[in-house]
Amino acid sequence: MKLTEKQKEFLGFVSEYIRDWSRPPSFEEIRSHFGFNSYNTVTTYLKTLERKGYVRLPDRKNLKRSIEVISPVETRRFEFPLLGRVAAGKPIEAVETVDVIEVPPSMIGQGDHFVLQVKGDSMQEDGILDGDFIIVRKQPAAQNGETVVALINN
């Protein structure tokens, strides 16, 4: 059976999440990624994909952790500009070196994104290491507790 674009996106997210994390995403992770208002929407998508033969939900009592993809849809990847390096510690001069990094949809949400490479080790406690690539979402303000990348004096 054919899938709608939304169903393809949903299945792609679940497939890539399982591939990347070696476990299915939780209902909360799915709900949050797609911006659904309730877990019922997640259940509806999963049951539709099961009926169409794309996923198996073997344990009805533990539906939230029993998602098995049996017919993955070809997943697309997004290309984001790699705009240079960002300091994690001492300030460095912002250098713009445009390149492209492919990112699976499961790693991003809504909004305008770009990629930076981390230089320095002050963010190790947050799991951000020297040489890591980070996906940055452009936004005018940050919420309390969010990690930010900021350009100072420009």
Q: Given this structure, which CATH class of the largest domain is correct?
A: Mainly Alpha
The total number of structural domains is 2
Radius of gyration: 19 Å
Q: Would you count the extended β strands for me?
A: 6
What letter string, H or E per element, gives the SSE order? HHHEEEEEE
Number of helices: 3
* Shape label: elongated
Q: Superfamily at the CATH H level of the largest domain? A: Winged helix-like DNA-binding domain superfamily/Winged helix DNA-binding domain
* CATH architecture field of the largest domain: Orthogonal Bundle
Poorly predicted residue ranges: none
Explain what you see.
The protein is 25% helix and 20% strand. With 154 residues, it is of the alpha+beta class. The chain folds into two domains: 5-69, Arc Repressor Mutant, subunit A, CATH 1.10.10.10; 78-137, no CATH class. The protein has a four-stranded mixed β-sheet with strand order 4-3-5-6, with no helix packed on it. Strands 1-2 form a two-stranded antiparallel ribbon. The N and C termini lie far apart (53 Å). The mean pLDDT is 81.
Secondary structure layout plus pairing:
Blueprint: H1 5-21, H2 27-34, H3 39-51, E1 55-56, E2 68-69, E3 78-87, E4 99-103, E5 113-119, E6 133-137
Parallel strand pairs: 3-5
Antiparallel strand pairs: 1-2, 3-4, 5-6
Helix pairs in contact: 2-3
